[in-house]
Design brief:
Chains A, B, C, D, E, F, G, H: GO terms for molecular function: hydrolase activity. The structure is a homooctamer. With about 250 residues, chain A is of the alpha/beta class. The first copy, chain A, has eleven helices and nine strands. In chain A, the strands form two sheets. A five-stranded parallel β-sheet of chain A has the order 6-5-7-8-9, with helices on both faces. Chain A is globular, with a radius of gyration of 22 Å.
Chain lengths: ~250, ~250, ~250, ~250, ~250, ~250, ~250, ~250
C-alpha cells in the first residue's frame, strides 16, 4: 500500500462506500510489505531485474531443482550457489538452458538481455582460492556487471599483481579473495583508488584456523579502502560489488 | 614517469642528447612511484583533493600539531583522528582555524570549497556508539559528502529505525555503527538497496569481548549488502563510503 | 521420607515398636530422595506428569528403543530427542503408537490427556534453523503447552516478523531460534513484553564458528528480557518455556 | 494510535471534517509507536509502572543526575545501575529521597506503592559475587517482586545450599550468580522445579578469563531449566525474573 | 550430629523425654553439617589442624585484618594470600606475631607446633615465576610439610635442573611453576617418579596470552604424572601437595 | 653408571689397568641413562612392576599387536589404550590371555600377582562420560590399586553423589570425569578430604567446544584439592592417582 | 631484463634500429620479472638449482602427475609434498625414476648431482611427529643439504636428547618437530648455539587444539634462538633451514 | 670441565695424588655445565664475546643497575631491554659510558672492538612498529652485525619497499616487524632469497587483538622463507638473525 492506494482507500471512506470499521480492518489486515514498511526480497528482485538466488547447501538436489524451476518460470535470471554435482544434474535435467560452473559450484540461468553496467575486477591470491573467486565472478556477471579475472596474483610474487595493475585500476570496485595470511587486499588497496571488498577464504592449514587468520588480517588492513565479508562469502562480495559498480554506471 | 615522459626520454637517446648509459641510470634511479608502479598516499592526496589524515593515537600532542601544521601549509583539508584534549589544544594553538570535535575525538581543517558529492547516512545503535559514528560522519563530511545522522536507532526499538527509513533510503551508502550484539546492520541491510558498511564498536561488557561479538555478528549478516570494517574503525568506513558515494555522483 | 513419614517412624520409636538402633539404621539406609533432600528426575517426572525424555544421540537404536519401551510401560508421555532414522524405526517397531517427527529428529508418545496450559510462540530466523525450532515446538507441545510456530522471520526482512507481531504478543513466553548473526531475539525482545528464550543454532559458515557468533550476539542482546541456552538446545529452551507458560496458566 | 484512535480518525474522514489527504498525512506523520507497530521503552515503562532504568557506566555524574531527576519528576520509580560513588553523590544531592546501594552499585527511587507480586530467590556462590547478586536483588525489588537472598552457597560446601533448599523452592524463579567454575546453577537447577536464570560473574583469575569459564559452564548446564544472561548482567536477570514472577502472581 | 548423637536423640524419644514432634523439629533444624551430610570448611579446619585461609584480593585491609584476627583467636594457624602492602600493615598491626612474606604476597601466623610431615619440592622456571612459587612454598610450609625450593631451573639451561635432580627425587610430590612455554613440568615429570603439580604462571608477553600458553602446554604434557591447576594458583597446588605428602607420612 | 661403577672405573685408573684417556673416553661414551642422569621409561617400568603402556591411536592393529606381544614376552603387565575393535581382535589373536574392555577402549594383560595397594574412587557425571571413566578405572586396576566405581552421579541430581559419599570418602584419591559444565569435581572436592583429579571429557555439544567448557570449569574450581588433566585423559588421571594411592599404602 | 640487456635496447635506439615508440612498447610489454622488479619462483628455481615444489593437497593425482612431469622435463629436481597414495601411483607411473616416501607423504625426483652443502639436524619429540619430521628431512636432502635424523627424543626422557647432543651440535641449523606441549625446541635451543626452527605438529588430543598448544609454547620459548613456522609445516622449516645451512657452507 | 680438565683430574688419580673416592666426589659435585653436559648462558656469553642481556621488565631500576654494573665489570658488552626512563637513569648514573636508546627502550654498553660480521636488514611496516624494530636493530648491532634500517615500508604503499629492494637484497637475513595485518613479511619473503624473521607487533586496535592478527598472518605466510617469533620480540629476532649473519661471514 503506497500513498496512492492509501488515498484511494480514504476516499472510499469519504464517499461512504467503505465504513471506518471496514477501512480499519483493511489497514490492519494488509501485509506490511504492501504498506511499504518493508519489501520482501522476492518483490525487490522482480522489480530490479536482479537474479533470484538459491543457497543450495543443505537442500536436496530435488528441492533445489524445484525452486530453481519455479523461479525460472517467472522469466528472471536465476543463480544457485554452493551446488554440488548431484544438484547440478537435477537442475540441468529440469532446466536444460541452465549452465553449471563446477569450479564456482554455481548454476546460472540467464534470461535477461541487458548490457553489462559497471566493471568489477575479481582477484585471487592462489589457485586454491579460485572456487570462491569464481563464485564471486559468476555472481557479478549474472548480476549484470563486466568482470575481469586476475587469478594467482599472491603477494609472494609481487610482479604478478603489478603486471596487471593497469587493468585492475579501471574497475569500479575490486573483489580480492585470499586465504593463508590474507595480505593481498592490503596490497591491492594501496594500488587502486576504488573500494576493495576482501573475501577471506578457508584455504590454508594449521594456524590458518579455517580462514580466521585471513579474516583477521583483512580486518586489520592498513589500506582504508578495504571492507570485509565472511569467510568464503564470494556471493556476498559480488552482491555488494554489483551495487557499487552499478552506481558508477547508472544509465 | 608515464608513457609520455618515457617517450621523451627515449627520444633524447635517439637524438643523442642522452647516452644509453645516462638513460639507463635515469630509469634505474627514478622512484617507482614516478613510473606509476605505485602512488604514494601523499601525492594521491594532493592530486585528489582528499584531506590529509593523521592517526593521532600514539603521537605526542607536539608531534601531531607539527604534522598538522605542515600539512595545513600545503592548502589541503586536514583530519586528525583519535585526538585527545591535549592534542586538540596543541593543534588549535598552532592552527586556530582548525575545529575540534570532542565527541568524535577528531580535529578538522577545511580549506577546500567544493560542494558535497554523494550522500552518506551514518547510523548508530545506541548513544554509546556515538563517538565512532561521529568519527565516521566528520570524516565523510570533510571528505566532501553530504552526511545525514540517524543515532540511537537500535533494534530493541524497531520503530525508531523504521521511522527514518525514507531518509536513509535516499543515501548512496549507509554506515552502521553498533556494539553489543551488532544486529543493526542486518536490519538496515534488509531495509535499503544500497551498500551497508558495518562498524562494530567496542561498546558492551562481559561476553561482548570488546567488540568481538558485534564483529562476528556483522560478518555473519544474513543481508548480502553488508561489508564490515575493523572494530571502532569509523574512519575506514567513511573512507570507503566516500569512494562509493562519489562514484554515484561524479560530476 | 517426608515430615509425615518421619513422624510415623518416630512415633514407632515412642511406642517401642521400633528400637532407637532400628530407627537409626532405617534413617541411614533410606535413599536421600526419600528424605526429600533431592528428587530424582524419574520420580519427579512421574508425579508431575511431565514426559520422560531420552537423549538418543550416542545411544544405539536398540538401546533407545528399550528405554523408550520401558518408560512407555509406566503410562507417561515419552520424548526422544536427537533420534536418527534408524532409531525412529527401532522405536516405532517396539511402540507403534509413537510418532516420528523427522525434521525435529524427535519421537513422541502421548499417553496423557490433559488440555494444554499456557502459550509458547516458537520463532526461527531461517528455514535452516527449522530442525531446532521444531525440536523446541514438539517438546513444548508434548509437555502440555499450546504452541504457535512463526518460521522464516529473520531480520533481513522485518515485515515478516512485524506481520506476525500480534499473535506472538499473545504468547506467555517466546522461543527464538537463529543462527548466523543471531539478531532475531533482540528484535523480538523489543516487540514483546514477555520473556524471550534465545536458542543460537549452528547454522552458518566461516566466521559463524558453528554457532558461536550467534551465541555471543544473543548474550549481548540489548533487550533485557532475553536469556540464552546452549547452541542448538531447542529441548532446553522448551523445557524452561513450559515451566514459565504453566506458571501463567496454573489451573 | 490504537484501534480506537484509528477508528476516530477514519470517522472524521467519513464525517468530512478531515479530508483523505489530511488523514493520509496524519497517518504518515504519526510515529510508528502510536500505531502500535512498536512501543518505545519509555511509554511502556510509564504504562506498566515498571521503573525507569539508567545505565550509569560511561555517563558523567552530572548527566546521570540530570536524567534521574527528569525521570523522577514523572512520578515513576527510578533505577540507576553501575553507579559509582561520585554518581551517587550527584544523584542524592539532586533527589534526596533516592537511596544508594553501594554494594550493588545501584541507586533507587521508589515512588510507587504497589504490593510485591511474585517471589524471586537470588543466590550467589561466593562473597565476591555479591555485587552482581545485589544488583539483581535490588532491581527485582524495585520492579515489585518479593526477593529472598541466599548468599555464599557455593558448591564446594553443599550443606549450605541444601540447608536453604526449602525456602528457595518456594520462589517462582531463581537467579543464581556465580563466577569461577559457574557450577552453582546446575546444582540449583536440579534442586528446584522452577526456571533458573544463571548470571556468570567476572569473579576469578587466570583461566576464568573474566567470566568466560563460568559462562561456558552455565551454557552447558545439565539441568534443562537453566537459561543464561551475559557476564555480570544482574540487571537483565532480574528484569526477566520479574516478568516470570509476575506471571505467576497476576492479580 | 554423628551416629552417636542421633542414637541419643532417638533414645530420648524412646524414653519419652522428647516427643516425636520435638525430635522431628530438631532433626529438621540441625544444619546439614551436623548430620554428616556435609562438613563446613571451618569445622574441618579446626579438627584437622590445617590453617585457616583468607583470599585477601578484593577485600579491604581492614576486612582482612578483622577476619585474620578472629581466626587467630581460635588458636589455629592462619594464612592470607594475595595480600598487598597495605593489607600486611593492617594485619601486622592487629596481630604482631604474624609474618609478612612480600615476595609471596602472603601473611602467615603459626600457632601450632607439630613437626613437618612429608616433603614437597617447589620448582620455578625463572625468577619472574618466584612470587607464585613462594606462595606455594609458604603455603605448604604453614600446612605442615617440609619444603625444598629449586628456583630458576628453566629448560633453556638443562644443567640447572639436572644438578638438583637428586634432592628433587626425594620429595613426595613436586610443584612446578612456569610461565612462557610452560615446558618445565614435562621435563621434571620425566625425571621423578612422584606426582607433579604444574602451576602455569602469567609470566610472559605477546602470545603467552597471560599464561594461557603455559596452561595449554602443561595440560598436554607428555609425562603422565603431571596434573595442572589454574594460572597463578600457587595456593591450590600447595593445598593438594600437602594432602599427598601427608598421605606418604601418616604418623 | 652409578657411584659404585664409577668408583670401579676410577680404581682401574688408580691401578693403572686403564689409562686416563681410556677412562675419559668411557665416561664420554656411556649413555646418560647408565649414569643415572635419567631413566628410560622401559627400565623404570621393569623395575617398578608398573605395566607397559601402548597408546594405540594412530597405530595399525598389526603394529599394536606386535608391540603388545613383545612387551608381554617380558612377563610384565601390559595396557593398550584407545584401541578400536580391529586392534583388539589383532591383539587377542596374538595374546589370547589379554582382555578387551570395549567401553574403555582398552586391552589389558595381567601377568603379575601382587595384591592391590591403595584405593582409587572413579566417578563420572553421566553415562556418556563412562568410556573415559572406564579407561581410568581399568588403568588404575591394572596398575595395582583397588578401584570403586561411582557412575552417573552428576550434579543435577545431588542425592546420587550424596548417597555414595561414605564409600567415596574411604578412597585415597578420587578421579572425577565430567563433560558439559564440568561441575562435579568442585562438588566432590568439597565432600572429601583427599586429592581430586578432574578429567574433563569431550561430552557435550554447542558451547561445550569439545570439552573446553568442562576444562575451564575444572581449572577454576573453588575446591582447592582439585587438579586437572587434559580432556579425555583418563589414563593420565589414573597414572597419577596410582602414584598417590600407593604412597598412602606403602608396604 | 638486467642492466646489460637494458643497455642493449637503449643502444639500439641510439643506433636508430629501434624507434622510441618500439622501445617504449618493448619496455611496457616485458614482464616485471625481466626487469628485476620481482622474480618468479620458477625462474629463481631454474637459476639456483633448487627443486621445483608441488603442494599436492587439493590437486587430483592426474593434475599433480602432469605438473610433476612438466617440471621433470626441465631437468631440475622435483618435490611433491602432501601426496597421498593415489597421487604417488600416478606420479611414479609417469616418472618411474621418482621416489615415493610414504611416511613423509612426499615424492622426490633427483636429477642434479651436486654434493650436499651444510648440515641440518632434524629432531622430533615422538613417533607421531615423524611424518612432519620426514617431510622436513626429505625436503632438506633434496634441496642439497646433509641431514641427520634424531627421532623420538621428547622431553619426558631427557637422556635421549642428551645422548645425541654432540651430533646435533655439529649441525648448522636444527629443525625440531613436536606436538602436545611443544617443549622440545626450548630444551634444544638451550643445548645448541645455532638457529633452531620449531615446527609445531597437530599431534595430540583434547586441549592440544590441533597443534595450537604446541604453537603457543614454541612462540613463548625462553631460548632466544628459536623461530617458529606454521603447524605441520615441515616443508617451510626445511626451506629456511636450507638457506641458512648453505650460508654456512658457500663454496 | 672440558675434556682437558677431565684428563687432568684422571691423571691425578693415575698419579695417586687423588684417590678414586676424591675424584668421584669431585665429579659428582661439579656442576653439569663444567662437564659440558650443558653450558650456562653466562659462560657461553663470556667465551663467545656475545653481550650479556638483561630483561629489565619486572625489575626495579636499582636491580637492573646493579646487574648491569656487575656484568660491565667483566669487560663484556651489555644490553638491557624493555628499560623505562627511570631504569635508564639509574643505569647511566652507575655506568656513564652506557647509552640509552629511548625509542628502542634499550641500554647498551659497548666494550668490545670487533668489526661487524654479517649484514642484517631491519624493516618495519609503520612508524608505530619502530620501537620493536629499533630493539632488533640495536640488539643486532651490539651483537656485532652490520645493520641497515628500512622503516615505514608497509604494504599499502608498495613503491616504498620496492624502492629499497636492492639494499635489502644484500642482507644475509631480514627482520620484518609489522602489526595490524602483518602482511609485510610475505611480500619481503617473495622479494629476497635469504631467511626472513617476522616479528608481529602489538600495534593496532580492535580485531588486531594485541598482535594476534599479525602473528597468525605471519605464521600463514605463503613465502616459505619466513619464520616467526613472539609478538613484540625484537630481541629474539635479532639474536637468531645474528647467528645466521655470522654464519655467512665466519672469519
Amino acid at each position: 500500500m503506497n500513498p496512492t492506494t492509501l488515498l484511494h482507500l480514504l476516499a472510499e471512506v469519504q464517499r461512504g462506500t467503505l465504513t471506518p470499521e471496514q477501512a480499519s480492518a483493511r489497514l490492519a489486515d494488509l501485509p506490511f510489505e504492501d504498506l511499504g514498511h518493508a519489501k520482501i526480497d522476492h518483490h525487490r528482485t522482480l522489480r530490479s531485474g536482479l537474479p533470484e538466488v538459491i543457497y543450495a547447501a543443505g537442500k536436496t538436489p530435488a528441492q533445489t531443482a524445484e525452486i530453481f524451476s519455479r523461479m525460472a518460470a517467472t522469466g528472471v535470471d536465476v543463480l544457485a550457489t554452493r551446488a554440488d554435482e548431484a544438484t547440478a544434474e537435477a537442475v540441468l535435467t529440469a532446466i536444460p538452458a541452465a549452465i553449471h560452473h563446477p569450479s564456482a559450484r554455481a548454476i546460472t540461468l540467464r534470461q535477461s538481455h541487458a548490457a553489462p553496467r559497471g566493471h568489477v575486477a575479481v582477484l585471487c591470491a592462489g589457485t586454491s582460492d579460485l572456487p570462491i573467486a569464481e563464485e564471486a565472478a559468476i555472481t557479478a556477471e549474472l548480476f549484470g556487471t563486466h568482470v575481469t579475472r586476475h587469478y594467482d596474483v599472491g603477494v609472494a610474487g609481487l610482479h604478478r599483481i603489478l603486471a596487471q595493475r593497469e587493468t585492475i585500476n579501471q574497475a569500479n570496485v575490486v573483489i580480492v579473495c585470499a586465504g593463508m595470511e590474507g595480505a593481498l587486499p592490503s596490497v591491492v588497496g594501496g594500488l587502486v583508488g576504488v573500494p576493495v571488498i576482501a573475501v577471506p577464504t578457508s584455504v590454508g592449514y594449521g594456524a590458518s584456523f579455517n580462514g580466521a587468520a585471513a579474516l583477521l588480517g583483512m580486518l586489520n588492513s592498513c589500506s582504508p579502502n578495504v571492507t570485509v565479508v565472511n569467510i568464503d562469502n564470494g556471493f556476498g562480495a559480488a552482491y555488494t560489488a554489483t551495487l557499487i559498480a552499478r552506481m558508477a554506471h547508472h544509465p
